[in-house]
User: Fold this.
Amino acid sequence: MDEEAAAEAEHVEPIAVDESTSQSKRFGLLRYTAIRLVLFIAVTAVLWLVGIRANLFFLLALGLVISGFISLFALNRTRDDASASVSGAFSRINRRIEQSATAEDIEPDPPPTE
Assistant:
């Protein structure tokens, strides 16, 4: 009986994976970062072709500001997916910590004394 109690105390339920989570939400942060990087490169290339070549720092700064402004409106859904992905990851971590702490709090029955 004591072994059963010890085994129960050590057992932590596995986290169930939500199968309804879409691929876009699962890799939301990676997708958002990749799209932002491509957008920055495209805007900077257009600025370079337009003729803003005098100062490299100015070209990169202007490309960053313009691509940031565009992504503020154009990537709203992608940014929400990235936020949900990060939030979901931290909630899973917190849930595992809570389960582990609960498992540690359960004390097994003391061995019988004869």
Observations:
- The radius of gyration is 25 Å.
